[in-house]
Amino acid sequence: MGEIELKKDIYWVGAIDWNLRDFHGYSTPKGTTYNAFLVLDEKVTLFDTVKRGFKDDLLRKISVIIDPKKIDYVVVNHAEMDHSSSLPEIMDICRPKKLFCSSRGKQALLQHYHRPDWPFEVVETGHEISLGRRTVKFIETRMLHWPDSMFSYLQEDALLISSDAFGQHWATSERFDDQVPGAELMEHAAKYYANILLLYSPLVQKLLGGVREMGLRVDIIAPDHGIIWRKDPGAILGAYDAWSRQDKARKALVVFDTMWESTASMGRAVADGLIQEGLSVQVMDLRFTHRSDVMTQVLDSSALIFGSSTLNNGMLPRMADLLHYMRGLKPQNKMGAAFGSYGWSGEGVRMVEQALQEMKVEIALPSVKVQYVPDEQCLQECVELGRKMGRLVLERM
Ligand code: FEO
Q1: Coil, helix or strand for 66?
Q2: Of 60, 141, 186, 397, which sits with the fewest C-beta atoms within 10 Å of its C-beta?
Q3: Ligand 1 within 6 A of 17 CB?
Q4: What does pTM read for this prediction?
Q5: What is the mean pLDDT of residues 286-300?
Q6: Contact at 8 Å (CB) between 18 and 55?
């Protein structure tokens, strides 16, 4: 009763984590899911497991369908602990004959769980195994998200089990893209891409090209987090293509932190200038916005205009946190500028500019700085900064 079937004899047996609020620095206000899939065939196969603490959910779902001891094979597409930390208990309970993973997967699993007795079978791109009526083809997807990551493609069902790729951190009672609002689904997918995969965009491009060359028909994409794409897998493939190319858009992002509202009022003036030039503008005040929500907006913004007051000869700590986080995610093809107020030493703006430069954001316009509180003339300079940036964005479209 209540089993969720993707295709005949292929079941979702994952777990819903309604309470997860942080995924290594990425805010997950709506939780996540750890998806796992059970295939009934001559060789009963479990694709991926779940985070420790959700093992009972996984076993309960499997038990409704089949005795877990009847599982012949376990496939580990990715060794990160959100998918593998229940593996030691699952291996002890199910005692499968084979555990399939990539060579880096084997290494990572040994370094996590120290169980050389597990029946490892190392596979690589193009390697195929038969489950009976079905063939599974493996595709290594190194660094998407870890060096060990891989996809499992179930040929006869045209089902791609895609591990972290194409996922979302979104806990829902629904499992499929035809059961949830499309716009909300895409927002979660974009946040996930911006915070997990953005730095690997060149590899995503290569992978999408490789999958196209292999000529794989894909009816369903089943990621290990969130909603499964069965109505329109092309939608998420197209979005990944656009996000990984980091195409220019008519959009600018103004982000700031402020001590006494001076830098905030400068940021709003910059935004006014951008709006006057017809750009889509997002304004984010770091006192109220999480770094990972800023990254979602960075994804499709052409211009990044960041502001900070000066505190203790530096920028404000929330801006430093954002810039440090952003540097790791390596956004490409962006123009930038900085602004901010200061009391006496005034290093904050220069440090913001320098940090943007270090991550290869092109500093397209000189910064605007003001001592203490901006007057009308200064605010007009900020509007002009926005207008000039707006015109540059449009010129380069
Ligand atoms: Fe969902 Fe890289 O783990």
Answers
A1: coil
A2: 397
A3: no
A4: 0.96
A5: 98
A6: no
